[in-house]
Design a protein that fits this description.
The chain is an alpha+beta fold and 449 residues long. It is 53% helix and 9% strand. The strands form two sheets. Strands 1-8-7-2-3-6-5-4 form an eight-stranded mixed sheet. The termini are far apart. It binds adenosine-5'-triphosphate (ATP) and magnesium ion (MG).
């Protein structure tokens, strides 16, 4: 304790190793009007309350790069309690390191108190991974503990100035992703930074500084020590970044997938399914860029589909009846992958809904098609079928037929119906043998919302 205090006091006397550069609007290019109203208001309220307040991190980086930020973080020297008291709608979240969620209209701003960089007293695991990161500090210290120089920029909406301790604006303009401090040490503290490097470079079209890139291959296995849930969150960010195809390509080049990221092994190590999975990722990228809805359930359903297909085929060859075999195959794949990939029960439910509707597309006679289009999950299931057709696994004609069917009026739909061959066959067979028959068409499962 005393040692720490002395070090602090001592440090204050030293000249700052990172003199701050104050960059005016004409050099960084952020226009006040481009910053969300909620972020501006939050900073203003904090400043009027006597605190420092800046928009920080990814939002500043994105604004300078000309990308609309998806959310805003604010950094301040006020403590969480002091911050909360200034706002009508605000609550403190997190136990280990508290931050404040401030609600402004439909926006939620994340307000955090400046944190200090690590020092010798920081708690780490045996590989050097930082386990606790919860000491308050000043703005300069807060900047130093961030990962990349482009992520350590502080924008003051009231003056339009950017505070830059590590030449982040220059790096952004030169399109380079550079680490603050020694990349090896920073990867050891938190191996997830390797994934962040790849994701941010893909998102912002940056070149990885050679010092940032070089250690990744040899340090990749440190990722194994990261808790599964954290890795899952980071992988979701990557897959839903709007640049998933590019990220996957870069991860592969940088040697970051094999055996380390179960999710990527699933993507990259299925010869049959690779085309399908890459199509699905490209489709997700396009949807995100167009501002359309996406869901983890849909994406995971695509990632694991070929495993389910292979499992299902084997079971059918072994004489199992198709419908129960599909259920068993689905459960088996979800059981083995679910835990590794940290798939939640809710997502697993969504995945199954989409899979279970696939065989029902084959039935194009009788009343079945009318019931299928009314299913709540119909559209997602058809999107899935469409991808299957594009990859060559399902007939294109089938996908086209269903597209036409859903858009047609009632009379047209009736005219489109195909002879219900399966149903007829069943009737004939079961009447001749006098027994019920498990056929190839799965029953209609009840789909939960
Ligand atoms: P995006 O929001 O576009 O996914 P981001 O950089 O904003 O990217 P967040 O996870 O929102 O990512 O993090 C906000 C900020 O917190 C970052 O800009 C960075 O300054 C800091 N940060 C996040 N993760 C780390 C990390 N692992 N190590 C150090 N700093 C980090
Ligand atoms: Mg962010």
């Amino acid at each position: 304790m005393i040692r720490k205090l002395l070090r602090r006091v001592f440090k204050r006397g030293e000249p700052s190793p990172h003199p701050v550069e104050i960059i005016p609007a004409e050099r960084h290019g952020i226009r006040q009007a481009d910053v969300s109203m909620g972020a501006r208001r939050t900073c203003e309220t904090l400043q009027q309350g006597g605190f420092k307040a800046y928009v920080v991190g990814g939002a500043v980086r994105d604004l300078i790069a000309g990308i609309t930020p998806k959310d805003y973080d604010v950094a301040t020297n006020g403590t969480p309690d002091e911050v909360r008291r200034l706002f009508r709608r605000a609550r403190i979240i997190g136990r280990r390191f508290q931050i404040v969620h401030v609600m402004q209209g439909a926006e939620t701003l994340e307000v955090s108190t400046f944190r200090a960089a690590h020092d010798a007293d920081t708690l780490k695991d045996e590989h050097g991974r930082v386990l606790r990161d919860n000491v308050w500090g000043n703005m300069e210290e807060d900047a130093a503990r961030r990962d990349f120089t482009v992520n350590a920029l502080y924008y003051d909406p009231s003056t339009g100035q950017v505070f830059d301790f590590h030449h982040g604006v220059r790096d952004l303009q030169r399109k380079t992703l550079r680490m603050i401090g020694d990349p090896r040490a920073r990867y050891r503290e938190d191996p997830v930074r390797m994934l962040r490097a790849v994701r941010l470079a893909a998102k912002l079209d940056l070149r990885l500084d050679p010092m940032v890139q070089a250690p990744i291959r040899e340090m990749a296995e440190l990722i194994e020590n990261v808790p599964v849930a954290r890795l899952f969150d980071e992988m979701l960010k990557l897959l839903f970044s709007g640049h998933a195809v590019e990220c996957v390509k870069r991860l592969r080049e940088d040697g970051l997938h094999h055996g380390l990221l179960p999710l990527l092994d699933v993507i990259l190590e299925q010869p049959l399914g690779e085309k399908f999975v890459m199509l699905a990722l490209a489709d997700t990228d396009a949807r995100i860029r167009a501002g359309k809805r996406t869901s983890p359930g849909f994406l995971f359903a695509t990632l694991l589909w070929h495993e389910v297909l292979a499992n299902w085929e084997t079971r059918k060859k072994n004489g199992e009846t198709p419908v129960p075999a599909l259920h068993t195959a689905m459960d088996e794949v979800l059981d083995t992958q679910g835990e590794k990939l940290a798939i939640t029960r809710r997502i697993a439910g969504d995945i199954k809904d989409i899979w279970l509707l696939q065989p029902r597309f084959e039935k194009r006679g009788g009343r079945a098609p009318f019931r299928l289009v009314e299913q709540q999950r119909f559209r997602a299931a058809w999107d899935f079928l469409h991808l299957r057709a594009q990859s060559g696994e399902a007939p294109q004609e089938l996908s086209d037929w269903w597209l036409a069917f859903q858009e047609a009026g009632n009379a047209e739909r009736e005219a489109m119906l195909k002879p219900d061959t399966v149903a007829k066959k069943r009737r004939r067979r079961s009447s001749s043998r006098g027994e019920s028959n498990q056929d190839a068409v799965p029953p209609e499962p009840t789909i939960a919302n």
